[in-house]
Predict the 3D structure of the following.
Amino acid sequence: MNDYINAIRNNYANFQGRARRREYWMYTLINGIIQFVLSIPLYGVLIRLSMQTDAGMDPSAALTGSTLIFGVIYLIYVLATFIPSLAIAVRRLHDTGKSGWWYLLNLVPFGSLVILVFMVLDSEPGSNKWGPNPKGLTGGAPTPAQNW
């Protein structure tokens, strides 16, 4: 949870430097859980819409004021976390020694699989052109890890 809060609070639009695997995956996990929880009411509305359409009833009856409220809350959250999600992905690519422009591979078919492999790769040991190793590894000699 600290990695998620740190990415939102301290590194909101920070595209410089490097991000460890743990920081990236903890942010992604917590962001995914929050998006899932916020989308549950919207899935209920979709199910009600399909059931009313199949029964020949008026489908607009499922669209209530609470549906609009949950939809707006979900949209605000997704828009608010778009920049930090992009920033942490770019910093994770920097940690593996790749440029942030590699993230554009998500726009081509099967490019997201390549990005997934990059995100799973270990950090580049030592410093690279984006900064020192966030793990604390310098020249192959590990230093004691803090909190992992």
